[in-house]
Amino acid sequence: MTTADMVRSKGFRVVEASTAAEALNLVGERSVAAVVTDIRMPGMNGLELSRHVRRIQPEMPLVFVSGEAHVDAAHLPPGSFFVSKPINLHELVLALFRALGAIGAT
Domain locations in the chain? Predict the structure, then answer.
């Protein structure tokens, strides 16, 4: 099951982008509530994408996923969330709810 399918299965509406450039266009053109991105991607990586997203939408909630064992929180944008791969659906949904402000971060 893809990450998008996992999130859809919990009732979220999902818009998928196949490239970082496409994701930036979607953020600029649509009402997007949050961005979920892998840190490692071909071309523009997720951290670069997040910097561009925050220029367009400074308060955009961000959730990063990665297969790296440890990601230093200092490298992530303020107020963003991290979920390690393999993705646990409960952890991903919890991160999304926290990013969206539906529940408090702990």
Answer: 3-99
